[in-house]
Amino acid sequence: MRVELRNLCKRWGNVVGVDNISLEIKDSEFVALLGPSGCGKTTTLLMIAGIYKPTSGEILFDGRIVNHIPPKDRNIGMVFQSYALYPHMTVFENMAYPLKLQKVPKDEQRRRVQHVADMMGIGHLLDRKPGQLSGGQQQRVALGRALVKDPELLLFDEPLSNLDARLRLTMRGEIKRRQMELGITSIYVTHDQVEAMTMADRIAVIKDGKLQAYDTPDELYERPRTLFIAGFIGNPPMNLINGVEVVRDGEEYLARHQAFCLRVPAERGKHVAAKGEVILGIRPEDISLADDGQDGMRGEVYVVEPLGRDDLVNVELPGNTFIHFLADPALRLKPGTPVALCFNTEKVQFFDPRTERSLLWH
Amino acid sequence: MEAVVREQPVEVVARRRSLRVSLEALTFMSPTMLLVTLFFFVPVLLLLWISLTNLSSNTFGNPLCVGGVRDVCESLGIRAGGVEFVGLSNYRRLFSDRFFPKILRNTLFYVFSTLTLFNVGLALVLALLTTHIERRAGFLFRAIWLLPRITPSVIYIMMWKRIAADAPFGILNQFLTPVGVEPRFWLREAPWLFVIVTNGFVGASFGMLIFSSAIESIPRDYIMAAKVDGATTLQIIRTIIIPLIKWPLLFVTTYQTLSLLASFEYILLLTNGGPGLYRTEVWSLTAYHRALQTYFGNNQWGYGAAWGFVLVVIGIIFSIIYLRVFRFNELVQEPKIDAL
Ligand SMILES: Nc1ncnc2c1ncn2[C@@H]1O[C@H](COP(=O)(O)OP(=O)(O)OP(=O)(O)O)[C@@H](O)[C@H]1O
Ligand SMILES: [Mg+2]
Question: Could you tell me if B303 and B271 lie in one domain?
Answer without folding.
Answer: no
